[in-house]
Write a structure and sequence with these properties.
mainly alpha, two-stranded parallel sheet, 16 helices
């Protein structure tokens, strides 16, 4: 058995969040401990985990030199990575990629197991423990509205941090963030079903969007149907189009040459970004003009005014500065006609390819 979190046998106590509102306090304070707060440990980086007393000692890892980069960097999902390497007895790269690990059984023999199983069990155990605390505090609370809404806000903030960690992290352990995310979704379904009478309108609407996401919600750009596409792009034609766009944008110096097919495909597939942001090499005003070309040339379908958000979510500037959607919206379009023509040329493929489904 892998103990991701310390096994504590302390006396029962209420959370600081519960005590705060029961004491009649109304001022805003920072809360570090509340029901489900320890779920953060599973996706935090090393620096955030350091003061939490988890007894992490990387020097005990066999063949530490093989894995030291992930620990030197202090990546997100640090706790998950640590418990993989501290428990694995026979390491093969493909095992790690496939989520398998060879461990020592009770009789000393080596056996292959799924790393997902002990991780998921640990997540469920922490969720159950916190649900018990939540129900206890909720039943006793004299300030249910304040208590439930503050807890909801804290958990939504944690959920957004998890989302960012999944998107930003490059190491193989970030994929286990999906398991952590599943636990949060279960918690939100419970809140949406059982605490609806005490949820504020904003929290109710936010949880509703998470629990019952709309398939029509716009996540990124969608390629507009065109007469020469007949009933749409075939998979083969789409690959030709996306590769052409990627190579042209790189060739004209608009995006980094490390940009992948998958990054560009996600940008034009109404798909939520789960990969690194595309590095924009030119001036911010040209990124605004990039959208103008997409819109004016009918490359993409209507975004219902979410295009600035999409651009800020999928692009980052070359100095690693974030693309601010509000600032981008207020910029003037570029006046560099040569660059504008070069952007237009990157989408010339749409006038050339014929795709019949």
């Amino acid at each position: 058995m892998i103990d991701f979190l310390p096994v504590l046998d302390n006396d029962f106590d209420f959370s600081p969040l519960f005590q705060h509102f029961e004491e009649g306090n109304k001022d805003e304070v920072e809360f570090g401990v509340y029901p489900f707060s320890k779920l953060r440990y599973f996706f935090w980086d090393k620096e955030s985990l350091r003061p939490k007393g988890l007894n992490i000692d990387e020097t005990k890892i066999e063949n530490f030199d093989m894995f030291k980069n992930i620990f030197i960097r202090g990546d997100y999902f640090y706790l998950i990575a640590y418990h993989y390497f501290i428990n694995v007895k026979e390491y093969e790269f493909e095992y790690k990629v496939e989520g398998k690990m060879r461990i020592e059984g009770e009789g000393g023999e080596l056996k292959m197991v799924s790393f997902f199983e002990p991780l998921y069990n640990a997540l469920l155990k922490e969720k159950t423990k916190s649900q018990t605390l939540l129900r206890h505090e909720y039943i006793l609370s004299k300030n249910k509205f304040n208590y439930i809404n503050k807890l909801t806000e804290l958990l939504l903030s944690d959920y957004n941090d998890l989302d960012d960690a999944i998107r930003k992290e490059k190491n193989v352990f970030s994929k286990y963030g999906i398991a952590v995310k599943e636990i949060y979704l279960d918690i939100f379904r419970d809140f949406y079903s059982n605490f609806v009478d005490y949820l504020s309108k904003d929290n109710f609407n936010t949880l509703k969007k998470i629990v019952y996401p709309s398939k029509k919600e716009i996540q990124s750009f969608q390629i507009e149907n065109r007469p020469n596409f007949k009933k749409g792009l075939t998979d083969e034609a789409r690959r030709v189009v996306i590769n052409s766009i990627k190579n042209s944008l790189i060739g004209n110096g608009f995006i980094s040459n490390v940009t992948t097919y998958e990054q560009v495909d996600d940008l034009f597939n109404n798909r939520r970004r789960e990969r690194d942001k595309i590095i924009w090499l030119k001036a911010p005003s040209l990124l605004r003009s990039f959208y103008k070309v997409l819109n004016d040339k009918n490359i993409i379908s209507s975004t219902n005014n979410t295009h600035w958000k999409i651009l800020s979510d999928f692009f980052i500037y070359k100095d690693n500065a974030e693309v601010n959607s509000d600032k981008l919206k207020d910029l003037k379009y570029s006046t560099n006609q040569l660059d504008i023509l070069n952007i237009e040329s990157c989408f010339r493929i749409f006038d050339e390819i014929v795709s019949i489904k």
